[in-house]
């Protein structure tokens, strides 16, 4: 019996057609990321940062639209990963290098490249593990969250007008930290819990409205604070689980 080559299955799937709606959102994410690169090259760093954040919104919508409409496909998964590498890997890397890392010379562009390659590794690992890990948790920092942290950092410094030296050093440390977290085994909440779409207490609606109001009032500060808390949630959650495990082992031995 002969075995059909995997490429034949892919060609057959493409002949059947692709789903338009979720792939349009993915294309919107790719366009926003590409325009972020163009803006960074032209020196419009805060514009580039905003377009990276816009790209993350499109990226979140394409997956939700595909799941809600039952239009998930292998083509969409591959296209989404390629778009993510451009929008959340290359775009933030170029933005960080042009905005703050260029004075470091070789160390600066190597830091930017490390961010890109760790983002690519993170995407590859996600595609391999997508059917074998818990859907409510990501293994390693998601690359859209890392890119959003980079963008919010640019917006915060643009808003505060911080000193150049502090900006450059802090960004260099941030890039290495984000690169490490993307390839780490820290677990991050995925916000894919179906319970989130069900009825919630009235207080949750009030809290959400207050949060939106605060974000609109001070978007640069609030975006930075929200993404920073999310990034720290992985290491903090690991330490909490480690402390609980240690306490449980001590109680069992006693």
How would you describe the overall organization of this protein?
By secondary structure, the protein is mostly helical. The protein has one domain: Four Helix Bundle (Hemerythrin (Met), subunit A) (Up-down Bundle), CATH 1.20.120. Helix content is 78%, strand content 2%. The protein contains nine helices and two strands. It has a two-stranded antiparallel sheet with strand order 1-2. It is globular and about 60 Å long. The termini are far apart. It catalyses: a CDP-1,2-diacyl-sn-glycerol + L-serine = a 1,2-diacyl-sn-glycero-3-phospho-L-serine + CMP + H(+).
Largest sheet: 2 strands, antiparallel
Amino- and carboxy-terminal Cα gap: 61 Å
Q: And the CATH topology?
A: Four Helix Bundle (Hemerythrin (Met), subunit A)
At the fourth level of CATH, the homologous superfamily is CDP-alcohol phosphotransferase transmembrane (TM) domain
Q: State the order of secondary-structure elements, H for helix, E for strand.
A: HHHHHEHHEHH
- Classified by CATH, the class is Mainly Alpha
Number of strands: 2
- Tell me the domain tally: 1
Which percent band covers the strand fraction?
Answer: under 5%
By CATH, the architecture is named Up-down Bundle
Within the largest sheet, what's the order of strands?
Answer: 1-2
**Broad shape:** globular
Q: pLDDT under 50 segments (min length 5)?
A: 1-10
